[in-house]
Structure formats: structure tokens, C-alpha cells
Design a protein that fits this description.
Layout: H1 2-27, E1 37-43, E2 46-50, E3 66-69, E4 72-79, E5 86-88, E6 95-98, E7 102-106, E8 112-115, E9 121-122, E10 128-129, E11 148-151, E12 156-160, E13 168-172, E14 175-177, E15 185-188, E16 191-193, E17 202-204, E18 214-217, E19 219-221, H2 227-260
Antiparallel strand pairs: 1-4, 2-3, 5-19, 6-18, 7-8, 7-14, 9-10, 11-12, 12-13, 14-17, 15-16
Helix pairs in contact: 1-2
């Protein structure tokens, strides 16, 4: 009974964290470039009352043994890397990656962060920046008199200016990818940071030989959150939480009966 109390408590804590994850996914269902997460669980250690394979007699062994599990724990939160839906905005500074890869953004502390959110703007110097004012890396600067901006599928950025008949190239956007994108560190603001688990970035031209995706101008990649799946997961987490709470109630009633034996 005492085992049941603590074991069921681990299940309740795991499902509470599961619901927290569902809430975060749902709250970011409209966040451009957001990657949903899915929790992974592991069973805890087992108490071996009778070890499987232990000697029953001099000539026989116990075939199954007697092991009692002590609950569950959350092992990891897996980042789902499926492509989100595309929204055709028509804004020339909205970019989406068709395939693998991340935009590179230079943070105020000098670090390079990575994002799938392609909502870019121009600052007062004409640099392409994120909504927080952090510039792309390498930096792309648009002339103040540019009449139009064109971003090719290979990341080439060109502008047309007054009095010119041909577009002028002003820079090229490069993408980065990782051996293990799920090992990136989420730091908010649609940004990821490199870790030892993700490996070093593989930087290259969009659509090039490194397996990087191509760029689509005037398009935004939306969140890859599956609303229906998240609601199902929410119901499963709620019912699992209720089931574990019933185990605690049952164990408490059994302990109460033991206490009443003394009266």
C-alpha cells in the first residue's frame, strides 16, 4: 500500500508535466515556425522481491521472479520536426524554408541563434532583422531607394533601384542544419541555440548539396501543432491523472481500515 501511494504520485506528477507540455503546444498553435514537443516517459527502478533466474532448488530456477515497479518519470521532451503549413502573406520580407534548415540570427551577446520563423523587417539602417531587432547572419542590407526586393530559392537577395534596368544582388541568405536538431536548446522568442547534443551547425546555400531546404518568398511557415492530436493527448493526460488519484484514494482507504483494526 505504501508503494502504491508513492508510485501513483509519480504518475500524477508525470501527467501534470504532460498537461503542461500540451498547454505550451496549444498556446503556440499560431506561432510562426513553432515546433511542437512530445514528452517521453520511462518506468522507474524495480524492487526485486524474487530475482528472475534465482535458484529455486539445486536443480531448478525461478522462471519469472517477483518484481514490483516503483512508478514512472519524464525522460525527455522530443521536438517534432515535421513541416508546418504555409501561409501565403505576399509580404516580400516573409520567408519560409521548404525542407530542412534554420535561419541564422545574431543575438545581442554575439551568439548565433537559429529559427524557423521567417518574419523579417527592416531596421533604420535597412538591415533585415527579426521582430526583436536581431539581424540575420550574414547581414543583409537593403538600400533605402529599393523599389522591390526579390529573394531567390537559393537565398540570393536582389533589389531594383530607380534608373536601373537590372536587379542588383545585395546579399545571400545562408541556412544552417544540425545532425540532431532535436538537441537544440529552446530559449524562447522562436530561437534555438546550439548544444553539444545538436552538434555543430552545417551552414550552406539553400537547396545546395548539404540537404538544406529552399526558400519561399512571401510565405510564412506556421506552427506544426496538430490541434486534434493535442486535444486527444489532453484527455489522455487527464484520465491518467484521475486513474492515479484513484489509486491513492484506494490505498488511503485500505490504510484507514488497518487503523480501525485497533479500535
Amino acid at each position: 500500500m505504501f508503494r502504491a501511494l508513492y508510485t501513483a504520485a509519480t504518475g500524477m506528477m508525470a501527467q501534470q508535466l504532460n498537461l503542461d507540455n500540451v498547454a505550451n503546444n496549444l498556446s503556440n498553435s499560431s506561432t510562426a515556425g513553432f515546433r511542437s514537443r512530445r514528452l517521453q516517459f520511462q518506468d522507474l527502478i524495480y524492487q526485486n522481491l524474487v530475482m528472475p533466474g534465482a535458484a529455486a532448488t539445486q536443480s531448478t530456477t525461478v522462471p519469472a521472479g517477483l518484481q514490483v515497479g516503483l512508478g514512472t518519470r519524464t525522460a525527455a521532451s522530443e521536438v517534432i520536426q515535421t513541416q508546418g503549413d504555409f501561409d501565403n502573406t505576399g509580404n516580400p520580407l516573409d520567408l519560409a524554408i521548404q525542407g530542412a534548415g534554420f535561419f541564422q540570427v545574431k543575438m545581442p551577446d554575439g551568439q548565433i541563434a537559429y529559427t524557423r520563423a521567417g518574419m523579417f523587417h527592416l531596421d533604420n539602417q535597412g538591415n533585415m532583422v527579426t521582430a526583436d531587432g536581431n539581424p540575420l547572419d550574414p547581414q543583409i542590407t537593403i538600400p533605402a531607394d529599393a523599389l522591390s526586393i526579390t529573394v531567390g530559392t537559393d537565398g540570393t537577395v536582389s533589389v531594383t533601384q530607380p534608373g536601373q534596368t537590372q536587379a542588383q544582388q545585395v546579399g545571400a541568405i545562408q541556412l544552417a542544419n544540425f545532425q540532431n536538431p532535436g538537441g537544440l536548446n529552446s530559449v524562447g522568442q522562436n530561437m534555438f541555440l546550439q548544444t553539444t547534443a545538436s552538434g555543430d551547425p552545417i551552414v550552406g546555400t539553400p537547396g545546395g548539396a548539404d540537404g538544406l531546404g529552399t526558400l519561399q518568398q512571401g510565405v510564412l511557415e506556421q506552427s506544426n501543432v496538430n490541434i486534434v492530436q493535442e486535444f486527444i493527448q489532453m484527455i489522455v493526460a487527464q484520465r491518467s491523472y484521475e486513474a492515479n488519484s484513484r489509486v491513492i484514494t484506494a490505498a488511503d482507504q485500505m490504510l484507514q481500515q488497518l487503523n480501525n483494526l485497533s479500535h
